[in-house]
From TrEMBL:
<protein>
    <recommendedName>
        <fullName>Snakin-1</fullName>
    </recommendedName>
</protein>
<dbReference type="InterPro" id="IPR003854">
    <property type="entry name" value="GASA"/>
</dbReference>
<comment type="similarity">
    <text>Belongs to the GASA family.</text>
</comment>
<feature type="signal peptide">
    <location>
        <begin position="1"/>
        <end position="25"/>
    </location>
</feature>
<keyword id="KW-0732">Signal</keyword>
<dbReference type="Pfam" id="PF02704">
    <property type="entry name" value="GASA"/>
</dbReference>
């Protein structure tokens, strides 16, 4: 009985810690700020790039690496479109 209880407790602790860590990383504003400033570092209209990158980062919880392309790394970021059907995320 004790062995079952200890096993269940250990499983619960492992699962809860692994599920909570990624969620807190993305909720941190500095995560999106850092990723978007890297992504928009060579953008022609930096303030617009940072705005839309921040919106997409908060919704998708990820930002592709590099300053252009690599959108395959984040399908949600890749698939967001504006009203005209053009890509929303820089």
């Amino acid at each position: 009985m004790k062995l079952i209880f200890v096993t269940l407790l250990l499983c619960f602790l492992l699962l809860s810690s692994s599920l909570l860590e990624p969620a807190t990383a993305y909720e941190d504003a500095s995560y999106c700020g850092k990723k978007c400033s890297d992504r928009c570092s060579v953008a022609g209209v930096k303030d617009r790039c940072l705005k839309y990158c921040g919106i997409c980062c908060q919704e998708c919880k990820c930002v592709p690496s590099g300053t252009y392309g690599n959108k395959h790394e984040c399908p949600c970021y890749r698939d967001k479109v504006n009203k005209k059907g053009k890509p929303k995320c820089p």
